[in-house]
Amino acid sequence: MKINKILVSQPKPSSEKSPYYEIAAKYDVDIVFRPFIKVEGLSAKEFRQQKVAIQDYTAIIFTAKTAIDNFFRLCEEMRISIPDTMKYFCTSDSIANYLQKYIVYRKRKIFSAKTGKLADLLPYMLKHKNEKYLFAVSDVNNGADSSILNDNHLNYTRAAMYRTVSNDFGPDEPFDYDMLVFFSPQGIESLLKNFPDFKQGDIKIATFGVTTAQAVKDAGLRLDIEAPSVEAPSMTAALDIYLSKTNPIATGE
Question: Is it the case that residue 67 has pLDDT exceeding 70?
Fold first, then answer.
């Protein structure tokens, strides 16, 4: 089945050079950017209620760019100075590179996995087993990653720094998509909240990240595209591969 319209559950890219626009032109598909969820940062007062002292930690674990934004925002609001000796452990290269928004990258100790999975970041963490880790998460993080850290006896503390809430659809907002692209389990929850009688039918579902893929399966839905993978390290790469089969590119004479 040819794909004509895709909903990507993320904000519209700020750059016109986004790979999504290249894919839209290449395969003659309409891509709509419409988040199912929105992120709200916890206030400094809310964060302090967790009784977590950021300055007591020697390493930070980041699994999302949103976590990075809210970590540094909270540090600024609470006037916490991060020492140059702080180590940063990120589950993907793109997350690690995002740190450049806040720190001088080349002067810091930064470690990253290639797959987006915490399990693949573990070897780096085990080489630094004596660090005191702060794990920056959202308020709805279900602790699925904790078993990996617990089993390897790492000294860590989970700290919620932001919350995700459903970004509800309006009653007159059309929902005529051939494919839905999700990046978090909360996006799946929002889909079912907005459309409790949702029937997947021929609609394709694509996900990025292990927990998001599992959320689709747990909801009894069919997962058609899963990233990252060796062949498709990014969501756009996965879409490119899939659309090359469903939307053949017309060739001239």
Answer: yes
Quickly list H helices, the chain: 19-27, 44-48, 65-77, 93-98, 122-126, 146-151, 185-194, 210-218, 235-246
In sequence order, what are the residues at sequence separation of 6 or more whose Cβ sits closer than 8 angstroms to the Cβ of residue 50?
159, 160
Task: Give the global pTM.
Answer: 0.67
In 128-168, the DSSP E strands lie at 133-138, 156-166
pLDDT of residue 250: 56
Question: Cα–Cα distance between 187 and 136 in angstroms, integer?
Answer: 19
Half-sphere exposure of 31 (CA within 13 A, CB side): 23
All domains in the chain, ordered by first residue = 40-164 (3.40.50.10090)
Nearest Cα neighbor of 113 from 99, 95, 100 is 95
* Average pLDDT of span 128-137: 96
